[in-house]
């Protein structure tokens, strides 16, 4: 795994479906004059809509597509030329892919997936800071419904809950670098300028190790 040091920074925003990863990444990119690299572009994954309708049948296809897509982006990060200006903000970390694979694949499929994942992982880049957004399941479901992406229409509340729990379990023991855990249930950093300014300030001042922030 490639580890960066010094500035400009590589900031990764993470969290479950609907929590606002892409929105916050775009905001940070503008605020920090950083390049923004977004993860899931649903229109580019031909298996995603079918996966939400039938997880068991299409899980391997959707996971491998995203794994290779993310690896290609990580290859660009590893070259270092993306950091020449204001740094980079992404709305994912590479380990996210295996987190979803653990949720979605059968045991036999996971064995095959892991062989590919481990070969690719050594060429990935560790963020200088991860901003992990948490939110209650009901909040996540409401935000998913509000953005009304056609491929997400079949998503069940149980799946959203499982994904959120998988993220919580993963970051509970995360120790690969600075981690800022943000309670995003009751903040609106997209529409509320005060909320946005407070969160940006917290991110810019995030200390080493693991820290938590909840507004109010």
Notable features of this structure?
216 residues, alpha/beta, Rossmann fold, 6-stranded parallel beta sheet, two-stranded parallel sheet, 8 strands, globular
- Number of discrete domains: 1
Report strand %: 5-15%
CATH classification class: Alpha Beta
The CATH topology is Rossmann fold
| Shape verdict | globular
Q: What is the subunit organization of this protein?
A: single chain
Q: Regions with pLDDT < 50 over 5+ consecutive residues?
A: none
**What's the rounded overall pLDDT mean?**
88
Major sheet: order of its strands? 3-4-2-6-7-8
Terminal residue distance: 38 Å
Helical proportion, percent range = 40-55%
How much is the radius of gyration in Å?
Answer: 17 Å
What is the H/E order? EEHEHHEHHEEHHEHE
Strand elements, count: 8
Biggest beta-sheet profile: 6 strands, parallel
Number of helices: 8
The structural class is alpha/beta
CATH superfamily: P-loop containing nucleotide triphosphate hydrolases
CATH architecture: 3-Layer(aba) Sandwich
Describe it.
It contains eight helices and eight strands; from the N terminus they run ββαβααβααββααβαβ. With 216 residues, it is α/β, with parallel strands linked by helices. The protein has one domain: Rossmann fold (3-Layer(aba) Sandwich), CATH 3.40.50.300. The strands form two sheets. Strands 3-4-2-6-7-8 form a six-stranded parallel beta sheet, sandwiched between helices. A two-stranded parallel ribbon has the order 1-5. Helix 8 links the parallel strand 7 and strand 8. The longest helix has 25 residues. The radius of gyration is 17 Å and the shape is globular.
């Amino acid at each position: 795994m490639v580890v960066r040091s010094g500035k400009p920074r590589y900031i990764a925003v993470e969290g479950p479906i609907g929590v606002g990863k892409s929105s916050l990444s775009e905001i940070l990119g503008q605020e920090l004059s950083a390049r923004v690299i977004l993860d899931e572009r649903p229109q580019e994954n031909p298996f995603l809509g079918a996966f939400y309708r039938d997880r068991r049948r299409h899980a391997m296809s959707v996971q491998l597509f995203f794994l290779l897509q993310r690896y290609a982006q990580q290859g660009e990060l590893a070259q270092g030329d993306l950091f020449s200006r204001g740094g980079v903000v992404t709305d994912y970390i590479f380990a996210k892919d295996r987190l979803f694979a653990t949720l979605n694949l059968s045991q036999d499929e996971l064995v095959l997936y892991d062989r590919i994942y481990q070969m690719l992982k050594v060429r990935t880049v560790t963020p200088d800071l991860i901003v992990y957004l948490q939110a209650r399941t009901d909040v996540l479901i409401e935000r998913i419904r509000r953005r009304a992406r056609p491929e997400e229409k079949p998503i069940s509340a149980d799946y959203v809950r499982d994904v959120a729990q998988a993220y919580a379990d993963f970051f509970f023991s995360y120790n690969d670098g600075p981690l800022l855990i943000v309670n995003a249930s009751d903040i609106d950093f997209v529409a509320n300028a005060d909320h946005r300014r407070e969160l940006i300030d917290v991110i810019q001042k995030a200390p080493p190790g693991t820290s938590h922030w909840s507004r109010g």
